[in-house]
Amino acid sequence: QVQMVESGGGLVQAGGSLRLSCAASAASGRTLDDYTMSWFRQSPGKEREFVAAIMWSTGYTYYEDSVKGRFTISRDNAKNTVYLQLNSLRPEDTAVYYCAAANLWGTLLRTTTPYIGWGQGTQVTVSS
To answer: Which pLDDT tens digit goes with each residue over 9-21?
Structure first.
């Protein structure tokens, strides 16, 4: 299992920026190199939606089309933290953003199925 704690959400005007953080720790005997870390988001009344993923060991990244060019996922090995930089925010980006961990890489990452751990979420609200 991977334990995760998100932070960095808040209220921002359209066009603004936020940086979300996810502090992660792997189970005993494992390292974060074993995992892919992803960000999802969920708005009221909607299903949880994939946003971006990063393979911890290589830094390979993968994005949902609607956020390409606006959001950037990255990780800091020394701090065991995954970041999601949100730029050019739009009201439709308003959601609770969740960090999640999986031990695979591939198109299944776009679904919630392969994830073995989730953070508690952090609220992002974008005003128009």
So the answer is: 999 999 999 999 9
Helix/strand/coil (H/E/C) assignment for every residue in the chain: CEEEEEECCEEEECCCCEEEEEEEEECCCCCHHHCEEEEEEECCCCCCEEEEEEECCCCCEEECHHHCCCEEEEEECCCCEEEEEECCCCHHHCEEEEEEEECCCCHHHHCCCCEEEECCCEEEEEEC
Q: What are the pLDDT digits (tens) for 45-91?
A: 999 999 999 999 999 999 999 999 999 999 999 999 999 999 999 99
